[in-house]
Amino acid sequence: MSSIKSCTAVLLVVFMIFLVGCATSGGQDVEKFNIKEEVTVGKSVWRVLKVEKEKKIGNRGAGLKAEGAFIIIEVEVKNLSSDEFMITGIETEIIDDKNKSYSFDVKNCNMYLKELNREGLTNQSVGPDKTGTGWIVYDINQDAEGLSLRVRDLDIRSDKKSLIDLNL
To answer: What Cα–Cα distance (Å) separates residue 47 from each residue in 31, 35, 39, 114?
Structure first.
């Protein structure tokens, strides 16, 4: 009977170790960085240069109004690999303190940025040892807090990612 209890105790400990391992691995963001810090993610180096929060963009008429709030981010990304990559927008997303994610507003970004006379980050081809710089726009919930930009390696075969605190 004591061997059954010992076996049960060992299985329980192994199971708990397994659960802890699952909770702390599997693509979790490991470290959060700050604005203007270089963040190496796989074969990419990301840096957020500037962050703005606006309710509308532009001056024509009423301007372009956000459903919530626009988060406008100037970013640079350096390609450390020997391959050329096209920046598509899937490499970034905003995460709030409730773990809600906001995707890059591909459809409207160019229109927003044209109003601001700024160049977008997407659709840039970044060659080996080259850096792409541009702006990305998100429309997020007005009450979202604790915002971070999740950045991924430019190489789509990689699952490496990291967080940059946007101080919003």
So the answer is: 14, 7, 6, 23
pLDDT per residue rounded down to tens, the chain (168 residues): 555 544 444 334 334 443 334 333 344 546 799 999 999 999 999 999 999 998 887 766 556 778 889 899 999 999 999 999 998 888 999 999 999 999 887 666 777 787 778 888 888 899 999 999 999 989 999 999 999 999 999 888 899 999 999 998
pTM exceeds 0.85? no
Q: In order of start, what are the domains of the chain with their CATH numbers?
A: 33-165 (2.60.40.1240)
